[in-house]
Amino acid sequence: MTITTMFTKTLLIYFIVFLLSDYAYGQRDKKFFRTDYNYIETTQGFYKIHTLQQTWADAKRVCALEGASLFYAENRDEANAVISWWKTVQPNVAWAFVGISDIITESVFETIDGRLVSEVYNQWQRGEPNDLNGDEDCVHLNLSGDLNDYRCDGESYFICKKSLASLEWDSHCNMPKSGYTFSEDLSKCYKLHTTPLNWMDAHTVCRTEQTYLAMVSNQLEAEYLANVTESASSRRIEGDYVKGIFHAGFHNRLHENWQTVRGTPIPSDASLWWDNHVPTEDDREQCGSMFYTGSLNIVNCATKSLFICEREVVTLAKRRSLLTIGLQQVSPQRTVLCVSHTSDSRDPH
Ligand SMILES: [Ca+2]
Ligand SMILES: [Ca+2]
């Protein structure tokens, strides 16, 4: 066996290990959740401080949309570790909502997952909790490590947390598991959202999930999305919203003519559009929608409807074919370059 053959075989083993390790173990071994979360080794958790102030309920909802939950410290060690990190990354944030409240029953402070505050980190500020004006049910934490009960409708910074142990990776969609369905034909993952929202809020939800409002780019995708929407129409979701349409990933909100949410031109194929009408600057509405049939249309942005989020993925089959091409066509050194390139999009660091 020549040195070159041995080297090639070694590389081949490396490729297989690379493919399998990524596929079978996901990102837990890589200690990666999302690019906007920091991992703290001593607590085995991922954290994010939100610097846009929200009510407690919205803070809780945003953390959930990110695939995490509103943080509370399990114990003093975790409180110390998080506060120490907080001081280095956001020292100007003095208070942050945490996942503890007495909303259900006055004076019974519980975590968002139903544990009594006595079971977790519970160092109250002196004289707290005091339920000031009978109107303080939500808890926030300060940089000194003290808790205080505060108005739930007051706006505050907040911290989200995802424990490493709870991280489940969706290998097909290459993202934390969050209810997305993979379509191999389209190399995309889709999720139907059945809480009706206006177009802007729907866009926000997809972006928070690190995806985009779904956009039809060809006939195959139109048919696929029509099938997805069929499941919604058969479920007869109640609520005050426009039935029969979904928000779609295009708009004219910048008044720079119609574009997709990725900033690319909308498809010009008239057959994709309802009544063969490709929207123009003259159209009064400014947001994109899609009929349950999959054909595209435009809508008033304030209209509430269901929506679908999407994410493009580099499929395992595609990666395999890239690797095969790499192995067949080039020298070992160049093959390594090819692998590095294909793995770029997955590597958090
Ligand atoms: Ca209270
Ligand atoms: Ca208080």
Automatic annotation (TrEMBL):
Signal peptide region: 1-26
Domain C-type lectin positions: 47-161, 185-310
Gene3D superfamilies in the cross-refs: Mannose-Binding Protein A, subunit A
Matching InterPro entries: C-type_lectin-like, C-type_lectin-like/link_sf, C-type_lectin_CS, Ca-Dep_Lectins_ImmuneDev, CTDL_fold
UniProt KW Signal keyword: yes
UniProt KW Magnesium keyword: no
Protein name, UniProt field: C-type lectin domain-containing protein
Species classification: Eukaryota, Metazoa, Ecdysozoa, Arthropoda, Hexapoda
